[in-house]
């Protein structure tokens, strides 16, 4: 137990050092950083604007009011933003680490290869999604006359972290395919497009899509079911208890796939 705590403390300190060093480098180019952050925020706001345009055409969406859908959409931005901060290397894993041989250097260091790949680079500007998501959630909650209690804040924090873990686990699992199939693009793009499905009520989709986003690619447990629990919708309350379990299972599966792929890896020889 003591050894595990020391190991955790060491990795937490390393993570802090990694992030601080990368932030210094990133912010040193202030113009580029602020333009990137502004562009990212503009894209987020325009995407959110579609929800308001949609509700100018329809009064409700599968019995969901506009404020509820906005709450769901805002909440979805929080775990997505947390994940997006660490997603850069996962998306580029096949091209940068496998095909260009950068992974060889990772294996030479006395540190977990997975830790290095995930935390070697950050998309700091993605933190704006967390901020925007929080603002949108508060706005929608006020419109819904939602009364926040301590347990609600704890649940929102827990669900957001679990959602971030689910996103990270899914795309980490997809990245492991690069150990077998060397390709610069990888298989991420079609799954990346599925992220948008979790920002709207799953009940608007067919039963096949609902099953896919719940039990095959569990994006629903990252966004829809947590938001439904926070909104107090009784028809989905039973899924709330499963959210941490799904996050833990997804992460365990992804780490196992990484370890199997790691044994399969052969150096580029360059």
Structure description:
By secondary structure, the protein is an all-alpha fold. The protein has one domain. It has 13 helices and no strands. It has helices at residues 2-28, 30-57, 66-86, 88-91, 93-99, 102-108, 113-119, 127-143, 150-175, 188-194, 207-216, 224-231, 243-264.
In short:
By secondary structure, the chain is mostly helical. The protein has helices at residues 2-28, 30-57, 66-86, 88-91, 93-99, 102-108, 113-119, 127-143, 150-175, 188-194, 207-216, 224-231, 243-264.
Order of helices and strands: HHHHHHHHHHHHH
Strand percentage lies at: under 5%
Number of domains: 1
- CA-atom Rg in angstroms: 20 Å
Task: Work out the helicity level.
Answer: over 70%
Task: Specify the number of helices.
Answer: 13
- First CA to last CA: what distance? 41 Å
Question: By helix and strand content, what is the structural category?
Answer: mainly alpha
The beta-strand count equals 0
Oligomer type: single chain
Low-confidence stretches: none
Mean pLDDT: 89
Shape: globular
Main sheet record: none
Question: Which features would summarize this protein structure in a list?
Answer:
270 residues; mainly alpha; 13 helices; 71% helix
List strands and helices in order, with pairings:
Elements: H1 2-28, H2 30-57, H3 66-86, H4 88-91, H5 93-99, H6 102-108, H7 113-119, H8 127-143, H9 150-175, H10 188-194, H11 207-216, H12 224-231, H13 243-264
């Amino acid at each position: 137990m003591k050894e595990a705590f020391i190991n955790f403390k060491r990795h937490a300190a390393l993570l802090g050092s990694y992030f601080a060093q990368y932030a210094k480098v990133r912010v040193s180019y202030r113009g580029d950083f602020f333009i990137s952050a502004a562009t990212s925020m503009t894209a987020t706001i325009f995407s959110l604007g579609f929800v308001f345009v949609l509700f100018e055409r329809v009064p409700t969406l599968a019995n969901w009011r506009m404020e509820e859908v906005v709450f769901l959409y805002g909440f979805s931005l929080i775990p997505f933003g947390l994940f997006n901060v660490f997603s850069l290397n996962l998306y580029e894993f096949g091209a940068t680490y496998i095909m260009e041989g950068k992974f060889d250097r990772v294996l030479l260091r006395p540190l977990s290869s997975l830790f290095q790949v995930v935390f070697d680079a950050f998309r700091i500007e993605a933190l704006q999604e967390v901020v925007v998501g929080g603002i949108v959630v508060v706005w929608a909650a006020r419109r819904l006359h939602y009364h926040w209690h301590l347990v609600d804040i704890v649940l929102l924090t827990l669900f957001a972290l679990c959602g971030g873990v689910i996103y990270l686990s899914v795309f980490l699992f997809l990245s492991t395919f690069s150990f077998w199939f060397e390709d610069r693009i990888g298989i991420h793009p079609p799954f990346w497009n599925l992220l948008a499905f979790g920002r709207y009520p799953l009940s608007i989709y067919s039963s096949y899509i609902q099953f896919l986003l719940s039990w095959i690619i569990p994006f629903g447990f990252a966004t829809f079911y947590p938001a439904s629990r926070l909104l107090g919708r009784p028809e989905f309350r039973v899924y709330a208890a499963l959210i941490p379990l799904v996050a833990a299972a997804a992460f365990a599966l992804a780490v196992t796939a990484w370890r199997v792929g790691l044994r399969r890896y052969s150096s580029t020889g360059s």
